[in-house]
């Protein structure tokens, strides 16, 4: 209709028609044509000098049809509202036709280079209930992984569990004191939570502290009985988490964890030592100087005085988790690693 009224070829008009920005405060039209942009090429005598009057005169010569069900004017513009029923029908038909590829067949994405992406998210601690604090990372991480996959990237979804550390020394001692194997099988996370609450009441006791340290040391030394109990905690926890993730529509390609890097963290310490980066304090604690002027104003502790590795050498963070970052690059040769 615009082509006929303005005596312009349709292709000349495409650049003059734009979408109207959505307004939260008021209902607006969907598309508009700017009078200024069409008068330059128009030979029509229906248009006078005043843009608002031009818009009104042009609108009067246009008729609503099956696609446009409302025509209105604005400051120097003619506005069009699309038939909502037709719009919904057209969009839904396209959704059904394209299926999972809906929205990503756009030419906008045709030049996006396909990459390998590692996305790590959720990361709850084993032997503890999945709670609201884990939900944000889980939902956001899964969303990012879905977007990457939809765009054709090769995505590896990793759940890096908190499954190592001194807290398992305390939990191990707690289970030896208060644990029940039947309850562990039937309601693992609830029972382990109850055990942890009970043993925490004794956490200030020197004997309990010593027992917890001994339990964790045995874990790091791969004592068979200690490791077997810890493995039960881990396996039961993962089973429970998988059930929860299934309800959320979330899945992972790999369940990793701090325990996986217990030996590799020793390799990292050796690498730091070989590069002259590992320093020892008077107490025997291993640190790495991160300060620019090498004055220890900023440093990272990577090894306890008793030789056991710390959270930082196993915990995933692009900046500090050397063991996991090195291993993931070796395993997956990623172009992008996203840690949520």
UniProtKB/TrEMBL annotation:
Domain Arginyl-tRNA synthetase catalytic core: residue ranges: 111-340
GO cellular component: mitochondrion
Organism: Zapornia atra
General function of this protein: Catalyzes the attachment of arginine to tRNA(Arg) in a two-step reaction: arginine is first activated by ATP to form Arg-AMP and then transferred to the acceptor end of tRNA(Arg).
Pfam families recorded: tRNA-synt_1d
Record has Aminoacyl-tRNA synthetase as a keyword: yes
Family assignment from sequence similarity: Belongs to the class-I aminoacyl-tRNA synthetase family.
One GO biological process term: mitochondrial translation
Keywords: Aminoacyl-tRNA synthetase, ATP-binding, Ligase, Nucleotide-binding, Protein biosynthesis
GO MF, any single term: arginine-tRNA ligase activity
Higher taxonomy: Eukaryota, Metazoa, Chordata, Craniata, Vertebrata
Protein name (record): Probable arginine--tRNA ligase, mitochondrial
Signal peptide annotation: none
